[in-house]
């Protein structure tokens, strides 16, 4: 892909290079049926497929379960610091994926001892969250949200419920006062920065999020409380205010949108699959079963960008060059036929890769806290609106045109109106 001077070479890239003519473009509405895309890539290319990102930037998509585990377990070969990328000379300033791959001084891009230091602070801060207290707070948030639409007999659950609840939940964990106008503005800016709609300015929203969290860190430095932000500031590792802000943004972003889509995808399953529609109320199939099945089959984070090769390596029969970008195909790995004999994909265990793997996986106990928020959201909704049904045919539900996050555009439902 480049000569020894680092300047991209002219002409057709050699076979095995991600930019080879057989590479498949990722992204766009045409890939809404992502599972079919992964099957096609696996059949044509094996466990590691050449792909093209936006602007036809070459990369590798790691599809195999063993291969994803190998990449995420060998940081000395496939590291997180994106400054290693051999494609930076070809990346335009307005590249759509730049917010996800542009190096930032946050825990996401640190390595080695520095990553252990930063991740350790987050782990210890999250361990201080009382899961029963979080469940109680999320139940109160859920009831407040349900009250806002219970009298109408219909609503669109993604916007009124699934996205709103984890945003409020994670901000409560971080010490933001619930119900304040300030918090509500931050919830809205989080939504815009992570999932902008038409007419929204995600960059401006992201700047406002950073500014408000900077202010929160200053407030907690002066008056600590029983919250994640204060525990990060008081940790013996001695993070600076700027480091805490950067890592808070990472924690909140990782908690909000994936958990929102986990809730939405689980509600879709409960409302469309007869196994659950018939049995959940009878107790034979639990909400927990549905939540776990979604992590296997409709995981919110489909693909994660990425890892960068530290040196030339071999992976899945491919020659990976130093500086190449590897996209972790979490959804494809979860449905790898090698781990599911006879093409049967079950939800009987929790060995999925939905929270990634290795040193850079979601820090413990983040998956447990996400489960508390998602489970509370689903169970509270089903309890208060027991006759909840889909307001459109299941085939009319559409997925967001994204190969990164798997979530519904909307989830319209109807129910018996109630005065709460």
UniProtKB/TrEMBL annotation:
Region annotated Disordered, chain positions: 1-20
Entry-linked InterPro entries: Cyt_P450_B (IPR002397), Cyt_P450_sf (IPR036396)
Entries under PANTHER family matching the protein: CYTOCHROME P450 YJIB-RELATED (PTHR46696:SF1), P450, PUTATIVE (EUROFUNG)-RELATED (PTHR46696)
Family named by the database record: Belongs to the cytochrome P450 family.
Name listed for the protein in its UniProt record: Cytochrome P450
């Amino acid at each position: 892909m480049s000569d020894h001077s680092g300047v991209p070479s002219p002409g057709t890239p050699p076979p095995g290079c991600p930019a080879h003519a057989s590479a498949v473009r990722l992204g766009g509405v045409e890939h809404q049926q992502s599972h079919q895309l992964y099957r096609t890539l696996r059949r044509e290319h094996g466990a590691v497929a050449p792909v093209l990102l936006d602007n036809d930037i070459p990369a590798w998509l790691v599809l195999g379960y063993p291969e994803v585990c190998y990449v995420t377990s060998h940081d000395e070969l496939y590291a997180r610091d994106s400054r290693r990328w051999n494609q930076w000379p070809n990346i335009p300033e307005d590249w759509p994926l730049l917010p996800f791959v542009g190096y930032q001084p946050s825990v996401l891009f640190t390595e080695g001892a520095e990553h252990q230091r930063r991740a350790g602070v987050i782990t210890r801060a999250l361990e201080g969250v009382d899961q029963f207290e979080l469940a109680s707070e999320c139940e109160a948030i859920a009831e407040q949200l349900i009250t806002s639409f219970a009298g109408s007999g219909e609503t669109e659950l993604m916007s009124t419920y699934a996205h709103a609840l984890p945003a409020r939940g994670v901000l409560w964990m971080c010490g933001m006062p619930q119900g304040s106008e300030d918090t509500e503005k931050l919830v809205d800016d989080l939504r815009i920065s992570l999932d902008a709609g038409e007419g929204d300015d995600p960059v401006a929203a992201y700047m406002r999020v950073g500014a408000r969290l900077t202010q929160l860190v200053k407030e907690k430095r002066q008056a600590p409380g029983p919250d994640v932000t204060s525990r990060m500031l008081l940790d013996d590792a001695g993070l600076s205010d700027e480091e805490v802000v950067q890592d808070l943004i990472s924690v909140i972003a990782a908690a909000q949108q994936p958990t929102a889509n986990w809730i939405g995808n689980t509600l879709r399953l409960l409302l469309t699959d007869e196994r659950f529609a018939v049995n959940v109320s009878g107790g034979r199939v639990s909400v927990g079963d549905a939540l776990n099945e979604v992590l296997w089959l409709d995981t919110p984070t489909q693909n994660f960008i990425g890892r960068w090769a530290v040196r030339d390596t071999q992976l899945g029969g491919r020659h990976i060059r130093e500086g190449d970008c590897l996209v972790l195909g979490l959804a494809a790995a979860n449905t790898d036929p090698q781990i599911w004999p006879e093409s049967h994909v079950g939800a009987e265990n929790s060995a999925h890769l939905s929270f990634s793997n290795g040193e850079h996986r979601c820090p413990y106990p983040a998956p447990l806290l996400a489960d508390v928020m998602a489970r509370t959201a689903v169970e509270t909704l089903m309890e208060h609106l027991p006759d909840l049904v889909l307001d459109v045919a299941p085939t009319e539900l559409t997925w967001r045109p994204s190969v990164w996050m798997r979530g519904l555009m909307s989830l319209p439902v109807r129910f018996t109106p109630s005065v709460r």
